[in-house]
Amino acid sequence: MTVQKNYKKTLIACYLGFVTQAITANFxxxx
Length: 31
Known about the structure:
The chain has 1 helix and no strands. By secondary structure, the protein is mainly α. It is rod-shaped and about 45 Å long. 0% of the residues are buried.
């Protein structure tokens, strides 16, 4: 159970990082 919880947390963190990177890549040329 602990491993699955840890895995989910890591997955969410990775997804958030990917979204942030995509937003930064899209908005940097506009600035």
